[in-house]
Every structure is written in C-alpha cells, then in structure tokens.
Write a structure and sequence with these properties.
CATH class of the largest domain: Alpha Beta
Helix content: 40-55%
Number of strands: 16
Strand order of the largest sheet: 3-4-2-1-7-8-9-10
Strand content: 15-25%
Largest sheet: 8 strands, mixed
Shape: globular
CATH superfamily of the largest domain: Glycogen Phosphorylase B
CATH topology of the largest domain: Rossmann fold
Length: about 375
C-alpha cells in the first residue's frame, strides 16, 4: 500500500495535461479586418495554438457565417444584423457564443465591445473570463451614459482585467474603479513576422523619398494629430513620409497643398516589404496622436523594433510607455505644433542623439515589447484560472 501511494503522484506528474481551450471574443478578426486589436488577437491565438492550445475566435462580419483558418486556430464569423456607434450586433452570435463558450476553458474578451458585454451577461457562461482593456470609450461620450450600467455589470463580473500599460491604468477613471482586479501586460510584436526587404527595395525608396526623412505609419484618423504635423512642417518642409489611408486623407492632402509642402509623401497602403524598407531607411519616427483614442500605439513598437528614435505626445496612454522622454526620443505636449517643430529640428541637427535614441529604442523593444513576452504573460494568466 505504501508503495502505491508513493508511485501514483509520480505517475500523475508525467501524464500530459489536456490542451487548454481558449475563446477570444471581439467585433472583428483577421483576415477580414486588419486593425491593431485584431493583430493582437492573432498573435495571442497563433502563439497559444503553437504551444498546444485549442484556440477559437468569435467575430462579426458583414458577410455570411463562415469558419476561417487563422493559422492554427479557427475564426468563427457571424453575420452583422445592425451597427450602432461602430459596434456591430448579431442575433446568430448568441447561439454561436453559447456553443463555443461551453467547450472553452477560459474566455478572453477584448474591450471596448459592448455587444460582448451582452453576450457575457445574457449567456452567463460558467467559465473563467478575462478582459484585455484596450481603450476607454472616448468618442461616444453621450452614449457612454446609456452604456455605463451594462459596462459596470460586465467589468464587475469578469475575473481579471488586463491593461496594456501602467500609464493607462493611472489615467483611466474606469480602470481605477476596478483596481483590485487590474494588472498590466503590454502589447508586443513578433519580429520574425516582418520580411527582410531585398536590396532593390532599399535602392528604390532611397531614390524616391531620399535618405533622410521622418516617417509616420497608421490609419489616417481624427486623433492621429497629422494636421498638427503639417502645421509643424509649414516653413521648414522636412522630408516626411506618411504610410496609411483613412477618413482624413483628402483633408490632409489638401492642407499640405495649401501650405505648399513639397517634400511630403502620402504613400497610402504599402506592402509589408515596403513598410519594413521605409522603417529601416527613415531618420526618425513621428507619431503626433493628440487624443486618448490612441490608447497604445503599435506603430511606435514597430519603430522601436527597428531601432528608430521617436517623437510622440503625452496623452496619458501607452504611447509614453513605449517612447520614454529623453531615452528613446522626445515626448511633447499634445496639439503643440511649435513644440513638435522644435523637436524635429533638434533631431534633424543631432545625429549623435539620433543614434543614442535609436539604440535605446531597440533595447526597449527587446526588453518589453517582444510578442513572446506578451504571450508568456497571457499563458501564465490563463493557467492561473484554468
């Protein structure tokens, strides 16, 4: 009997654990949508699948119901019935969520997405649940008053809330309400996902935009502060490359024409190879987002990955966690084109500072923003609840 008692624990420790079943819930997902949150979900889902987990993603889509291979995990798209304030709703998603949540070991919501609050509170899954809190509700202030009771019930009911930077925790009134269940896991990017550009790409872009230019990458939205960048360029006209499309594109091009800016290049959407080439070639990275809608700034992580000095604004979000003032670049006052112009001038004239900031940026990426670090932190969190 004593022998059996001694042997059983050893045998149990050698038995392989069952694969973890993880369900992500958000309004959109790759490959049909290419936003920052979608990129984060993809990296977490793909990484967990590579570690042996069964991962599924529930998302909405304007098309029909379909299941797509996301690269080792499944994306279940449900048809959107209607949309309110950028939030899609779907009746069919209730049935699919109930089905997927029953076999999940842990449910991972991505906030803000009010429809997920409804799914969670209506279907009442008896599974551990965590929320990655990507952003406050910023633009829909009036609707927030109506949404607040639902938000409160949802965030009170989940097991853990994850903020993407300590800066955001300190400046978010909502996160402060749930401080006892909030922790921080910064977002990260996987360097191996970025292709190495061939030599002919480098030659092509050097000839087209020159060898010394500022670079911006992002969707051209109202909160990106690009109108402030154009104000800063007025009269100095440093070569500047803007990658991305969006609702502000035409207005920005018109303003650049009015200012007579001859050295600004609006490239629109470019391939990954071209983006990497321009990141490698650029002199410095400028990211003038001036509103809290810019909750983190993955483009800054890309710049840090390629060892670029950065300029960003202090808006109380993750942008100032990635770009540390005086270490990896300059953090300026928001909406201040004069401050922005001065910092661009200081960098333009100081190649020693450019090199120092660039080296520090690369080091910061390696220590804090690699995708593997983000994944390990989330996998450890999952295991805590499963």
């Amino acid at each position: 009997m004593e022998l059996i008692v001694g042997v059983i624990p050893a045998l149990i420790r050698k038995l392989p654990s069952l694969p973890m079943n993880i369900l992500h819930v958000y309004k959109a997902a790759l490959p049909h949508s290419m936003g920052g949150v979608e990129q984060v979900i993809h990296q977490l889902a793909k990484g967990a699948a590579e570690k042996g987990a069964n991962v599924e993603v529930l998302a909405l889509n304007r098309g029909p119901r379909e299941v797509v291979d996301g690269g080792g995990y499944k994306v279940h798209y449900q048809p959107t019935l209607f949309e309110v304030a950028s939030t899609p709703f779907s009746l069919k998603a209730f049935y699919k969520f109930r089905e997927l949540s029953q076999k999940a070991d842990i449910i991972h919501y991505h906030y803000p997405y009010p429809f997920a609050d409804l799914l969670h509170l209506t279907c009442c899954p008896s599974k551990p649940s965590i929320v990655t809190y990507h952003s406050d509700v910023v633009r829909q202030r009036k609707l927030l008053k109506l949404y607040k009771p639902l938000q409160k019930r949802f965030l009170s009911s989940v097991d853990q809330i994850i903020a993407t930077s300590p800066n955001y925790v300190q400046t978010s009134g909502t996160l402060q309400e749930y401080a006892d269940k909030v922790s921080v896991i910064p977002l990260g990017l996987e360097e191996s996902n970025y292709p190495e550009p061939p030599a002919n790409k480098l030659d092509y872009w050097k000839k087209r935009v020159g060898g010394k230019f500022f670079l911006f990458i992002g969707v051209l939205r109202y909160y990106k502060g690009l109108h402030i960048l154009l104000d800063a360029l007025k009269g100095v006209d440093y070569p500047t490359v803007i990658i991305g499309t969006g609702p502000e594109e035409n207005a920005l091009k018109q303003k650049a024409n009015e200012y007579g800016l001859k050295n600004i290049h609006f490239l629109g959407h470019v391939s990954d190879e071209d983006k990497v080439t321009l990141l490698k070639l650029c002199y410095a990275f400028v990211f003038p987002s001036h509103l809290r809608s810019e909750a983190f700034g993955l483009s800054l992580v890309e710049a840090a990955m390629f060892g670029e000095p950065m300029i960003s604004c202090e808006i109380g979000t993750g942008t100032s966690y990635i770009n540390v003032h005086g270490e990896t670049g300059y953090v300026i006052k928001p909406r201040d084109s004069v401050d922005l112009a001065q910092c661009m001038l200081m960098l333009w004239k100081d190649e020693i500072k450019i090199r120092q900031f660039g080296e520090a940026s690369r080091k910061r990426y390696i220590l804090a923003f690699k995708s593997s670090i983000m994944l390990e932190n989330y996998m450890g969190l999952y295991e805590k609840f499963v």
